[in-house]
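Dear colleagues,

I hope this message finds you well. In preparation for our joint manuscript, I am sending the ABC transporter permease (Candidatus Ornithospirochaeta stercoravium) sequence together with its predicted structure, so that both groups work from identical material. I would be grateful if you could confirm receipt.
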Amino acid sequence: MNDVKTPLFRLAKRDELGRGKVWAIRAGSIIVALILGCIPMLLTGNSPAEAYGVILQGSLSRPIYIKQTVKIAIPLLGCALAIAPCFKMRFWNIGAEGQITMGAVAATFFALNFAKTIPHVPLLAIMFISAAIFGGLWALIPAFFKAKWNTNETLFTLMMNYIAIGIVAYLQGGPWEGRKGSQLIPMFQDSARLPTVLGVHCGWIIVLLLVIAMYLYMNKTKQGFEIAVVGDSVNTARYAGMNVGWVIMRTMFISGAISGVVGFMIVSGANFTLYKGVANGVGFTSITVAWLSQLNSFAMIAISMMLAVLEKGANTLQTRLQVPASIADIITGILLFCMLASEFFINYRLIFRGREKKEVEA
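The corresponding structure tokens are as follows:
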């Protein structure tokens, strides 16, 4: 009778695992992902080994490919750094896409109107600062409503993405339209473009500096400690005398400001113009980067590069083996799913009915 009532298996919280076991589980998840990724390749009549080789060749085999891969990784890393303090605080900022877009809008305004009157370096500095302020203010709106009326930040920040995209769509076909009827904003002049360092725009230097700054901010400052306390327990934070509403708004402004800087780097270092899809899903993909890295700033570098390798390699896979773009997306999705699933097994374990009895008897 007890066997009927007892579930076949149940979940239990694991005791803290050693670092070796944690990384063994993560490595195992990657192996499983690579095996599962063979299935769509076999279904399309291609060799999985050749396909994986093409992905690596297309992203890392030549200097020009490496540069393109780094370009993809820069906004991913920057945006993951932006949302990390929010997630540490248990404020689910899903609006990085919109914050990137509004930062790009601010930078574009100065690029279009002052490129001929302001010298190169001061113009870039103004674009940088204005993008940070615009992105921060855009993020501050849902933060204020959360602090004041405890609104749902997930829905609020998500909906604001579409407002930002709508604003750019209006600018494309309205005040900032270049040639009449083109629905295109003019390309930036050279004075509004980021200089290149080692063949890639200097945004990679900016994001690496942000990695160090975010690590120090989160782990060595009073503000970082307050973020951690609010994330653990809002009541504890209030009992300790913290102004929770202020912590929320301050953290979101910083998050939005960094996202705005990412928008500046995209329009000034990669695209050289603004369009409504300027964020290109970076705000959503960076959530995966942040979670897979466990909000560790330095781990984000590796995760961002891995996703950039997959994205760049998938493009090569599509052209060289004539594989549909959807297949490349499926392989990427399988890898991300398995890596996220590994975090579940790091924190929880399955206990089956028979095994539970043996553990109790022992």
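For the figure legend, we might mention the following. The mean pLDDT is 90. The longest strand covers residues 9-13.

With kind regards,
E.M.
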